[in-house]
Design a protein that fits this description.
The complex is a heterodimer of chains A (91) and B (689). Chain A is of the alpha/beta class and 91 residues long. In chain A, strands 1-3-5 form a 3-stranded parallel beta sheet. In chain A, strands 2-4 form a two-stranded parallel sheet. In chain A, 43% of the residues lie in helices and 19% in strands. Chain B has 5 domains: 125 residues, Four Helix Bundle (Hemerythrin (Met), subunit A); 139 residues, Histidine kinase CheA-like, P2 response regulator-binding domain (Alpha-Beta Plaits, 2-Layer Sandwich); 56 residues, Helix Hairpins; 179 residues, Histidine kinase-like ATPase, C-terminal domain (Heat Shock Protein 90, 2-Layer Sandwich), CATH 3.30.565; 137 residues, SH3 type barrels. The C terminus of chain B is likely disordered. Chain B is 43% helix and 20% strand. Classes of the chains: A alpha/beta (91), B alpha+beta (689).
């Protein structure tokens, strides 16, 4: 299964660059997204992650501490990581 | 526009805000301030804070927060504006300026702990508050243990659950597109004590329909009662209309601004249509382009402006070449050609005016220099400024900062006496440095004057002889002795300090001014003070000049130097030993400087009456008459640097391209005449007719 690895800095430019990869992953089961290296993330990428969770068969996101912190700040922890959207927490 | 460009705008606005705050605090010092002045200082600092938050400059944001908290209290009248407080505010402004520099250059943040402590202490001391810096809004009962009301209030606050209020935040595409990051604003809300209670994901489309540039998410934050709505709004000040906010429990979450999406049959999945259909009315509204915000100015990339100036320069040359070509073909009296010339000149003036900036941007750094000098030398100096709105080219302004700083430091270090000496001399204990600027004869005159002890000519001369700069038996005029301070390696400072006294400052100043195509003169009176007068061109790009012929060469004399031109009558030019000649101009003799030998341009006329004499005014050697074969034209010329294409030449300021495509050298009249006079072309004689 293909895993999308998020860059350390998930800014707007990263969202633009990674969108095609996200779209390409549709239709082949649950999207695996490795965000364990993310240190910084902006709204553009956050929206992609929410969208990925809501598209097709959903997405499983492996978060970094920074991503968890962001999810808690923005009230999206359930949206991004709860099991119903195939998310998973990684230690 | 890239994030870097947006950030560049932020820093440009920081500079403006710092200048505004500096001007406001200067008004406070002068006692000419009013409520609006304090408000303007507050707004300036607040504006920097807003941008710093949006771009994630936490150090800068933290400092401005404390700074503006105190300013807010001053504005509200809670904290009185005393001289002591003003001193703290001025030093805080200096640190703020350093913070901006650090954020801009990516360097280490300045050491601000001491000033932060002073700001916090000033607020607590004056307002009777003991609030920690991070929570300046909280007010308790102060130090008075018997303030029962305050004690009850604080007790009540602890027991009663704080009433929260809600703010809805909806960042739109522009909030992300302009280089700022909405998440940072949410963090700022959290820092104020807010917490996210709802995230609106209902407008987020599936991946195959998502536009990475659009803003789909919205948030609702619960804010503590201690945070005012105004404080929450301030978080979003910098981002403006790119983020819609709604406050209060009754307010609804604002709708996103989403562009209509073309849903094709291939992607028309039901899950995708629902959220977009829900936002259709809003989308339709967003499809109508909003009218541009009414603004009085726009920011332009300097590189684009430079390209425009270059192109205008080429246009001036092309227009001149066309006129020359038509003249050569005996096609004259064309009305349209005159119109073209007028329009070209208008375009050139307009283009140059875009680059023009008030010199106040350079003057505004002087108060800080004086404050720093006061701290290191103990000499307190009052600053008087006039003509700060005088405009000149941005390039000149940028290069003016360094020589101006040297001159100010020199004025305080060498010119202004200590308070004891001043009182003994019957002067006010506080010295005065005055800065003025004015346009005069197509150039700008900048005067930096102090009311200090003036130049000690005996000491200057002794030092110059000691250092071998002049011969012990040299007979120098007062002006020449003053000018010795510009000699490389010259310094009369008794001790070497980090301010001046290393003998590297003043010759660097003269060189900097010279590189700008300017001149520097000294006016000094013992016991009264010294003034340095800088004469600079308004622009370094285009000037007006007289095209002269010397042998087979065409040369340009900048019109700013020309006093008059004449063909001398017999008897008006007299010999003065060794083939030198002097021109009698209305009873005053000035040296004649033939240019032929200097430029290796053939034989000079047998007598001055065979050629044309151009009387020029110079800073160093007064008037002189340049002997040339003839004058062919007077026109604007585009200055091209000789150093860029060849190398620096004594007596030559640059080069230009004439209408016929010929390259002509532009004379450095001052340097040329000074060299000629020094080489023995003659010393001006007065009333010798």
């Amino acid at each position: 299964m293909h895993t999308i690895i998020l860059p350390e800095r998930c800014d707007r430019a990263a969202a633009e660059a990674m969108l095609p990869e996200f779209v390409a992953g549709l239709g082949s089961g649950v999207l695996r997204i490795d965000g364990s290296g993310v240190r910084q993330c902006g709204q553009a990428m956050l929206q992609l992650l929410v969208s990925a969770r809501r598209s097709g068969e959903g997405a499983a996101i492996t978060p970094s501490p920074a991503l968890i912190d962001l999810a808690l700040l923005t009230g999206l922890d359930g949206e991004l990581f709860d099991d119903h959207g195939h998310g998973e927490h990684a230690a | 526009m890239s994030p870097e460009e947006i950030q560049g705008i932020f820093f440009a606005e920081c500079d403006e805000s710092l200048q505004a705050a500096e001007a406001g605090l200067a008004a406070c010092q002068a006692g000419t301030h009013d409520a609006e002045t304090i408000n303007a200082i507050f707004r300036a600092v607040h504006s920097i804070k807003g941008g710093a938050g949006a771009f994630g400059f936490e150090g800068l944001q933290g400092f401005t927060h404390i700074f503006e908290t105190l300013l807010s209290d001053v504005r509200d009248g809670t904290v009185p504006l005393s001289a002591r407080l003003l001193d703290v505010l001025l030093r805080a402004l200096d640190v703020l300026s350093d913070h901006v520099c650090a954020a801009r250059n990516g360097g280490d943040a300045p050491a601000d702990a001491a000033v932060l402590a002073e700001l916090t202490a000033a607020q607590a001391r004056n307002a009777g508050l003991a609030a920690p810096p991070s929570e300046p809004e909280e007010k308790d009962g102060g130090d008075d243990p018997f303030d029962l009301d305050s004690l009850l209030d604080s007790l009540g606050a602890e027991l009663a659950p704080a009433a929260e209020w809600h703010i809805h935040v909806r960042p739109h595409a522009g909030a992300m597109a302009n280089g700022s990051e909405p998440i940072l604003l949410l963090r700022e809300l959290a820092r104020l004590g807010g917490r996210c209670i709802a995230a609106d994901c209902s407008h987020v489309p599936p991946l195959d329909l998502i536009d990475w540039q659009a803003g789909y998410l919205g948030w609702t934050f619960a804010m503590p009662a201690g945070v005012s709505e105004a404080e929450a709004r301030e978080v979003f000040d910098f981002i403006g209309e790119d983020c819609t906010i709604a406050l209060g429990d009754g307010a609804a979450m604002p709708a996103p601004r989403l562009a209509p999406v073309q849903v094709t049959s291939e992607v028309a999945a039901p899950v995708a249509i629902a959220p977009i259909a829900a936002s259709a009315p809003e989308a339709a509204a967003a499809a109508v382009p909003a009218p541009p915000a009414a603004g009085q100015s726009i920011r332009i990339d300097l590189a684009k402006l430079d390209r425009l100036i270059d192109t205008v320069g080429e246009l001036v040359i092309a227009q001149a070449m066309l006129a020359q070509r038509l003249t050569n073909e005996n096609v004259t009296g064309i009305e349209e050609l005159g119109l073209l010339e007028t329009l070209t000149r208008d375009i050139q003036e307009s283009a140059m005016s875009i680059r023009a900036q008030p010199i106040g941007s350079v003057f505004s750094r002087v108060p800080r220099i004086l404050r720093e000098l006061a701290a290191t030398t103990g000499k307190h100096t009052r600053l008087e400024v006039s003509g700060e709105s005088t405009e000149l080219d941005k390039t000149v302004i940028e290069k003016l900062g360094e020589p101006l700083t040297h001159l100010i430091r020199n004025a305080v270090d060498h010119g202004i006496e200590s308070a004891e000496e001043r009182i003994a001399a019957g002067k006010p204990a506080e010295g005065t440095v005055s800065l003025s600027a004015e346009h005069r004869s197509g150039r700008i005159h900048i005067r930096i004057a102090d009311d200090g002890k003036g130049i000690d000519q005996a000491r200057v001369l002794a030092k110059a002889i000691e250092k071998g700069i002049v011969a012990p038996d040299a007979q120098l005029t007062r002006e020449e002795i003053d000018l010795l301070i510009f000699a490389p390696g010259f310094s009369t400072a008794q001790t070497v300090s980090n301010i001046s006294g290393r003998g590297v400052g003043m010759d660097v100043v003269r060189q900097s001014v010279k590189e700008l195509g300017g001149r520097i003169a000294i006016e000094s009176e013992p016991g009264k003070g010294t003034a340095f007068v800088l004469t600079l061109p308004l622009t370094l790009a285009i000037s007006e000049g007289m095209i002269i012929n010397v042998g087979d060469q065409a040369l340009v004399v900048p019109l700013a130097s020309v006093v008059e031109s004449l063909r001398p009558q017999a008897g008006e030019v007299r010999g003065l030993g060794h083939g030198q000649a002097m021109l009698n101009v209305r009873g005053r003799f000035i040296p004649v400087v033939p240019l032929h030998g200097f430029f290796g341009a053939g034989r000079q006329p047998q007598s001055a009456s065979d050629g044309v004499l151009i009387v020029v005014e110079t800073e160093a050697a007064g008037k002189a008459a340049l002997l040339v074969d003839g004058i062919s034209d007077q026109r604007q010329f585009v200055i091209k640097s000789l150093e860029t294409h060849y190398r620096s030449m004594e007596g030559v300021a640059g080069a230009t391209i004439l209408g016929d495509g010929q390259v002509a050298l532009i004379l450095d009249v001052d340097g040329l005449v000074a060299n000629a006079v020094a080489a023995g072309a003659g010393i001006p004689l007065e009333d010798a007719a």
